[in-house]
Amino acid sequence: METTRQNKISRLIQKELSEMFMLQTKAMKGVLISVSACRISPDLSVCRVYLSIFPSQKSEEILKNINDNMKSIRYELGTRVRFQLRIIPELRFFIDDSLDYIEHIDQLLKE
Fold it and tell me: How far is CA 61 from the centre of its chain?
């Protein structure tokens, strides 16, 4: 059960990261990255960010690239939310494959 403060901070981080990834993927044709969820720890020090990446064949490669550039992403996030947050949480990125799972279930039901 998340507190109200955790919910507000996770929504703020999700919104800002979504905008950052949208600006970054404009240069890459045919790639779409959306932030499906953010979960922040009770002490507000760690944020688990779930990414939905299209096309899903490139998801591992893109996630590796994001994890390699995690410090610069955290820095840019810090410059965007510096007036709302005192401490920027550590970011951990994960692939949200729920859409692929739903698609797989639909294909099985059609058979």
Answer: 15
pLDDT tens by residue, 5-29: 999 999 999 999 999 999 988 888 8
Query: Across the beta sheet with 32-40, what order do the strands follow?
Result: 32-40, 46-54, 90-95
Residues 105, 84: Cα–Cα separation, whole Å: 41
1 burial class (0-12, 13-18, 19+ CB within 10 angstroms)?
exposed
Closest CA to 39 of 74, 9, 63, 4: 9
- In whole angstroms, give the CA distance from residue 69 to residue 83: 23
Point out which residues pair with 50 in neighbouring strands.
37, 94
What is the fold of 4-110?
GMP Synthetase; Chain A, domain 3 (3.30.300)
pTM of the model: 0.84
